[in-house]
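Revision sheet: structure tokens.
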Amino acid sequence: MNKSKCRIQLGWFEGTILLVVSGSSCRHIAEEMAEILNCEHHSLEARRFPDSEGYFRVPESSINKIRSNTVILVSNTFPDSCIVETLMLLEAIIDVRQGNLADIRGKGIDCEPIGPGIFLAIPYFGYSRQDKRFNQGEAVSARAIGMLLSSKCDGITVLDLHAPEVLEKLPVKISFASSMSEIATYLQSEINPDFILSPDKGAIERASFVAETIGCKFSYLEKTRIDAHTIVHKAKDLDVNGAIVTIVDDMISTGGTICRASEALREQGAKAVYAACSHGLFTGGAISKLDQFVDGIIASDSLKNPRSVVSSASALCRGINELIEK
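Predicted:
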């Protein structure tokens, strides 16, 4: 990624003094965002007690900066422990900005509160797949987590959310960032695919954007149920004989969908098949399994994994800009 170019493109923040902070989950992304935005990055204290409960604190050296700048906390909500960490870091930042600085040992004095200016950047939003009530009595987890977070900040940007509409009615400003532009750039320079394929209709918007950006053909796989135990995946109106194909999705978890899609493509003559996603969860030995079906795996660094080769920092900066402009 050409960071100097990003700095020119992201020159939206004139007149706004920013500070990027992070806890334990996304420090690598926060540091890069600070570099792109030409501002400071501060690490907040986030550690565990022996019983696994968390301890979170704004270091004394960061207090004045947090009180005098617009603060961007970069933090994930996956795994579950990161939900607590994000909420507690926001709480600590709120206390500092409200002037609640005196401790029980008599160190520090309370001072005047300052105005709003806390934004949250979430590379990977945990519980995003529970975005509807599929069965009676279920919690719509994505909305519930969103409501908790929105009570402690002035705006949230989320990277490649599975179903953005679930957060559209939160009581704070929301922006939806996407790393698909950076993924398209990587694919064009490193893979040069002939076709981009969506593994199902749900990923069409993202995959078609990548295809349009690269300037190659696009299609999606249709699922046909043969019986209770058999589903056949077949590309719609697409001749992939001798082609290099990249399957693009928002997240890869077990990799089962990608493996089945790759099988369908190879049966139709594809020369090579790659998989690309924003969020590489890669659970249950998914990478080892995928390596048997695809020629390569590309993911953003929203979650650290062996295939995170695309930076998500620029996309999240674009999301923060949208919040500030709102």
